[in-house]
Amino acid sequence: MEPVDEILERALQLSSKERGKIVEILIRSLDPPGEEISEEEWEKAWSAEIQRRSEAVKSGEMELIDAEEVFKRLGTRLKEKQPQ
Predict the structure, then answer these.
(1) How many domains does the chain fold into?
(2) Can you give the residue range of the structural domain that contains 10?
(3) Which pTM value belongs to this model?
(4) Pairs from 13-20 (Cβ < 8 Å, separation ≥ 24)
(5) Distance separating alpha carbons of residues 36 and 44, to the nearest angstrom
(6) C-beta atoms surrounding 78 within 10 Å
(7) Closest by Cα among 17, 26, 5 to 83
């Protein structure tokens, strides 16, 4: 099993709060060096995104998918991409 698969398998066993923290850290790690944002800017940006998504769900533009289903689909995609 690849290290990424092992990490994902273990991460999926965590609580949603713990997985959320990992997601936050990973997303922040994608910022190019020198372009990091402050905690206040981070919160403001995510608040705007939450508002946008909430409105999209209410209008029917976006469908909610249960987190377990999302992770199941992600796991399937990762397995499909593994070299045989």
Answers:
(1) 1
(2) 3-30+38-81
(3) 0.47
(4) 16/67, 19/67
(5) 14
(6) 14
(7) 5
